[in-house]
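Hi D.,

Good news: the full-assembly prediction came through. Inputs first.
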Amino acid sequence: MRPWLGWAIKLSLVGLVVFAVFAVYLDAVVQEKFSGKRWTVPAKVYARPLELFVGQKLAKDDFLKELDALGYRRENALSGPGGVSVAGNNIELHSRGFQFYESTEPSQRVRVRFSGDYVAGLSQASGANLAVARLEPLMIGGLYPAHQEDRLLIKLEQVPPYLIETLVAIEDREFFNHFGVSPKGIARAVWVNATAGQLRQGGSTLTQQLVKNFFLTNERTLSRKATEAMMAVLLELHYDKQDILEAYLNEVFLGQDGQRAVHGFGLASQYFFSQPLSELKLDQVALLVGMVKGPTFFNPRRNPERALARRNLVLDVLAEQGVASLAHVTAAKQKPLGITRRGSLADSSFPAFMDLVKRQLREDYQEQDLTEEGLRIFTSFDPILQLKAESALADSLKRLSGRKGVDQVEAGMVVTSPESGEIQAVVGSRQPRFAGFNRALDAVRPIGSLIKPAIYLTALERPSQYTLTSLLEDQPFSIKGQDGQVWSPQNFDRKAHGTIYLYQGLVNSYNLSTAKLGLEVGVPQVLKTLNRLGVEHEWPAYPSMLLGAGALSPMGVATMYQTMANGGFSTPLRSIRNVLTAEGEPLKRYPFQIQQRFDAGAVYLLQHAMQRSMTEGTGRSVYSQLPRSLALAGKTGTSNDSRDSWFAGFSQDVLAVVWLGRDDNGPTPLTGATGALQVWADFMRKADPLPLDMPMPENVVQAWIDSSSGQGTDPSCPNAVQVPYIRGSQPVAGPACGIQAPVDEVMDWMRGWLD
Amino acid sequence: MVVMVPGGVSSSPIQSFPAGNAPVQAGVSNQPWSASPSAVSGGFVAPAPTGIPSGGLAVDEQLDGPVLSLLTTAQQQQGGGDLNGAASSLERAQRIAPSEPQVLYRLAEVRMAQGDAAQAEQFARRGLSYASGRPALQASLWNLIAQARERQGDAAGAAQAREQARVSL
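Then the structure:
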């Protein structure tokens, strides 16, 4: 007996030591992980914030759409941040405030008055004048590593009323009383499991759940359960309840979004309601807390009935336990789930634009910094224009679908602001929601006649040789190129057009006269112009380049046309404005940079011709959709056998490039005018841009010419039209015609007399 | 040039520059923009009030609402040494009023303060393209171009720009 007892004592001592060592080890594990940075957070990418100011062009419907996407609640009387009330053209909202790179936008009550498609009034709720205000930016995505967790970290102060009480009531009633494990809870679990004959209920406290998610794997064994309990006790020993609760709120898994796991109440609130957590109401809180038990099983998007039943069960418990009044609970149970629709503005992903942003970021940051440091990336993305671009594409292709072969046509589209060089929208596919081949960036295709403005610009830079009304011969010709090939360009209509004015070659996109002009100014010169426009290429100086044999992506074309739209100033296109750290410290800026590459006068003349393309040339069908008063400039492009249908053009404030074609490079039934231009026109109609209005440079004069002879004339004469010239290159003004003449003579006589 | 700002802000130190031989500190944000003297002359002439009546903006130079507000913010940021913040606020103003030459003028000034004379010149040139009929502003822009060229070592170009500034008025 005795020796056995001695051994037993010794063994228990050893056991105790082993246990103590294990406990010390666990303690180190708990403290190490809990005291450091608890989570890595993927970078978040934001759209541009919507600016509000008097005189701003903004349709009320677009404004409301943006507010919806930001999760603003429609209310009769504003109840706090995130609320909006609409009364006709008067909208009052309580903005949430946001920290931007250059300053912090306060949360404030703002009144906006609309008139037509303009903001006509902006003031604070007090009536005080407000010069400018910004909404919060829409979050459009993040940089998630494959199969990884995502979260929006929140602090305990940011939780809405009822969240803590509900969580405790549902998941761990004894939370504020126990020391990490709850004997009562375990007893209940043992009873449930014993009666069920299998493991059904864990009896875990919130602390244990946190420990399980934080430190342990998901296996359900007794030894793991024991370790979990020990760690829970250790955690409670070192940290207070508030700390543990905050960690729990950020850690808990609440849903799966493709490869991204939605963790924490902060992100779940955005993911399901598009609202910040702090704004959630009782019914929303109950839904999220109810989901803790089974985020997939109770997923409100996939299993709405189940989720609703669970939510209402949670609400009943709250009434039962006196957490919320019966009246409040009854009202909450009447509410719908209120989950934002996937694919609406708030939730849609914009893979083509995100792809662009990621490419830029990966040039400037380590992958790990992007996926772990919680960076905030502010972009120029305009969700309103993006949706208009997408619907213009879808609507136009639908209209064109009668033509054989249109089904196989794919698309790429880029929208920029010509005045700032910012990229506002990118469409990479006919199915804009699916990530994949990003045609806006990667479909490098022959640009056809889109090259022609570069030829005319090269000519117009030499005002002593060329003006818009110089005469060109549109006649067939053949030359032997450097590559040894004989080159015989043809017009699209296979006709020659004889002697024409220079601008007519561009306006009607005649190949013969344009190619001839290109050969006169020199193919290398034209390619150099293309470089100066901002296009990087290594095209050989073959004559065929003059008719667009060279290939560019829609983004490349946008860069090229940007310079023409912006008065000859080239600017690298940008999608990112700036970057803040997770703590809100400025990290990096992508500044606006410009460089004057062309004389403003030459660009003015070019724009004049490109505007006439729209009013009387290859782009004229645009005005069957748009009002004549909307001045636009642009150019069609069609490659051989209609394999590529292009249109690139701009208003004062919007530049858009559209490409249509097949991925296998097969022929399509579409020319630039019948295909891409239709998409472009529909987009412009939806975007409702400002008319092109380049200020006339000081070296440009408007002169009256006789449209039939090209000679200088007087406005009083028949056929007199006004054409801009670089000063000194204009024709000499002609004499006046008709009854005006004597009047002028009298005036001259009087002037002479007065002198 | 003086941007019309409300309250006492207009007395912020943006118009005077101690000459000195401090090294060019592009991007250093805790110093006002006087920290970048011209390498050529050892201290450059203030671009500020040239040609603009000293009592504030001429009538045709007065700005309204959002642009004025953002220019004021930018001026405060620049005064506090936050050049990146100032540039960001000005770019915000430029997006709101892309063809307002005063915004481009201020952007040029801040680029200059950041030590980027080449971009300063470009923005001033862009400003000129929108400044038709505003001779005082044209003169200020040309003067800024002159300084930018000087800083880039282009003395002849600077002289030309100064001549342009003179004939603008």
